[in-house]
Amino acid sequence: MEIAGVKVSILNDDGSSYTKYNHEVKLILGYDPHGLSVTVKSSSNEELLEFPVDTSTEMCRIGKRGHCFKLDYETLLFTLNDEFDSRKFTSLLAKVKSGKDLSVFTERTDDSSAIQYFQFYGYLSQQQNMMQDYIRTATYQRAVLANLPDFKDKIVLDVGAGSGILSFFAAQAGAKKVYAVEASSMAQHADTLVKANGLGEKVRVIAGKIEEIDIPEPIDLIISEPMGYMLFNERMLETFLHAKKWLKSDGKMFPTRGDLHVAPFTDESLYMEQFNKANFWYQQNFHGVDLSSLRHAALKEYFRQPIVDTFDIRICLAKSVRHVVDFLTAPESDLHRIEIPLEFHMLQTAMVHGLAFWFDVAFLGSVTTVWLSTAPTEPLTHWYQVRCLLEQPFLARQGQLLVGKVLLVANKRQSYDVTIDVRIEGTNISSVNTLDLKNPYFRYTGQAPSAPPGQSTTSPAEAYWSQLDAQAVNMVNGIAVNGVGDVQMEALTVNGSSTPSGTALLGLDVQSGGSGRQASRNVQLVSPLIYGAGSSTAQIPQQLVLGSSYPVSSNLMIGDYVTPGNVILPQGMDAYRS
Question: Catalytic site residue 34?
């Protein structure tokens, strides 16, 4: 809530007063876990003062438009210009003072968690992390612009607007009015962007929580990006569903549904990595201290951590089970306790080390359906994938039936306690583990995930040389280079100078000697297969995805991305792409 045209005075102990600011200011009323945050700003948006209001704050109303606050260091009198604004302000302060009328959000969320949450999303750097996820942002824009009839001349609500990027997409699609609701301090930056882009009449930024603000008219479409790790983390989906109280009976939600996929996986390396972390606590003489009594507790803690990274889909041992949430019909209470029954038909014999999770969301528009996927087969997003390890893995054989359940129980830390319970049907083999989704281990290194061992069904060395033969024949009009194949090339002549055979050349006219046959063509040799270990040609880092997207970089925080300008394309890249 924003109140403009406010005069601020300082009250002395003897009852006298004087003006604190020689100009009118505006009050920005925002979220505080204990009540209300009041920010005083100048007309140029300079922050002058900020203070919290809660049940212990000394305050009173003076006349019809005056409000007095006793702060730690001074007593301030705020005189509002509009009596209607004064009544709204009075009502809001009365709720805070009484401690009654707590919102759904406040009842389900710990204060410390809420403070950390809104602080995190109040940073421009964190908004940048999400906006630079090219797959995420471009898919949302595509879903909006490919379904123009759903937005044209419609009233749109953006839930948890952040920077307001989705509100801008709605405006691009011709929305009549967009209400961008954001509870963190990012609301002020979003408002700045709206005004700077000339959309002040179309997009209205509302600072506050969906559970506590009012929307002045029915909504045609609700858009939001409420997904967390494993789809449900952060419990933002409940806020997304709560917003349906303003949705028209024939209204739409973008996204419209969410699918959580679950599959058993095998990964001995990951299991041993987590297991060995507890070896530190085996020490019996750590600076003279015996740590071994804590080893078991440490092991439990490490296995309570979900692993956030990516993996090769071939580590999955069975077709994934899908849990579907229809956002149009599901009530908030459906997300308080989520039980997913499991039934997997094992496709191969292997150790089952845990369950892998990823999600897809669908935008079911009137023109087309657009999917946003975080599957391991798709380009990587800032959600990655999540794996939950079993502390006690077990061997399952091809054809056996693996059954059990995943239970997600919401907690007040805006996350879930996740219990995975699996067993082999018809046996006494089973394993159970409970994990804390609020405390994941971010394992992603930036390297492409390696294939699981044992995937080669032919000799890798023979396959390598066969591929080299095929490449060499294709590159110089059927003449094999460096003695590979039927024709041996003793040397390559480049612009009259002799170059050792097998040397990689970029963009040079090559002539072959030794056999009497010539192949004059502009050869682009860029594949590392033909360079050998001594090649000095620029290599492409595995973690970079070249193209118009923002590739993931392990040098930055989770969700950060390298901008295209940081990728130096080596000479001959056009040939590489082709």
Answer: no
From the candidates 85, 191, 212, 225, give the one annotated as an active-site residue.
Answer: 225
- State whether residue 269 is helix, strand or coil: helix
Dist CA 212 CA 522 (whole Å): 68
The amino acid occupying position 17 is S
Phi/psi of residue 514, nearest 5 degrees: 95, -35
pLDDT digits (tens, 9 = 90+) for 294-324: 999 999 999 999 999 999 999 999 999 999 9
Residue 100: predicted pLDDT: 55
Mind giving me the DSSP string for 526-555?
--GGGT-TT--SPPPPTT---SSS--B-TT
In the annotation, is 212 catalytic?
no
Q: Tell me the C-alpha distance between 153 and 306, whole Å.
A: 44
Distance CA 141, CA 172 (A): 9
CA atoms within 13 A on the CB side of 153: 1
Say if CB 363 and CB 370 are below 8 A apart: yes
Of 85, 133, 182, 309, the active-site residue reads 133
- At residue 235, the pLDDT reads 96
> Which two three-digit tokens encode residue 143?
């879903």
Specify the pLDDT at position 479.
54
pLDDT digits 0-9 by tens, 79-96:
998 888 888 888 878 877
Distance CA 12, CA 508 (A): 85
pTM for this predicted structure: 0.72
Three-state secondary structure string covering 14-43: CCCEEECCCCCEEEEEEEECCEEEEEEECC
pLDDT tier for residue 563 given thresholds of 50, 70 and 90: very low
234 is catalytic: yes
* 133 flagged as catalytic: yes
Which of 211, 234, 360, 560 is flagged as catalytic? 234
From the list 242, 261, 382, 560, the catalytic residue is 382
